[in-house]
Amino acid sequence: MNKRALIVVDIQNDYFPNGKWPLSGADAAADNAARIIAVARDAGDLVVHLRHESASENAAFFLAGSEGAQIHPKVLNRPGEPVIVKNHINSFRETDLKATLDRHGIEDVTVVGSMSHMCIDAVTRAANDFGYRVIVIHDACATRDLEFNGTLVPAAQAHAAFMAALAFAYASVLSTNEALAMRGELRVTA
């Protein structure tokens, strides 16, 4: 039995240009996520899609039932792939994500999606705490500029800081090409 799962977190329409909460690099990250998804499917890995819906009717984005809350076409789930709707930053909180992984005997999870500084950080730390071996594909994740105490933190720096923190003790943090090469799926031509 294959003991690997790919967790696709919140790659939803509102995070793309013309959405309600666009992220820096959302298209490039989704393209890389699609490459990882294709390899996971070919290998027979469990592919689990997480879709955030805001619990508040006054939320800035991901309103329940809206087009913005739908999974982006670049990474749409296939029939039979679980889609878990969540209302919290941590994908394990009040969802059946852990039960789904455990039911399939999963030991290793790979994480792609959005936002690096929120849901990716939370699901990665929680997965590690639950004992899964975790890989985060850093260039298949996206975030946006942040602000703290009057200081602007550009998206690239926020992303790098969170990836560095996760790589310290929570996960192996790899590029798409590194992850595909590890699985023997990257073909290099001269």
From TrEMBL:
| A GO molecular-function descriptor | hydrolase activity
Matches recorded under InterPro entries: Isochorismatase-like_dom, Isochorismatase-like_hydrls, Isochorismatase-like_sf
Which UniProt key words apply to this protein?
Hydrolase
The segment(s) forming the Isochorismatase-like domain are 5-176
Presence of the UniProt keyword Hydrolase in the record: yes
Listed name of the protein: Isochorismatase
From which source organism is this entry? Rhizobium altiplani
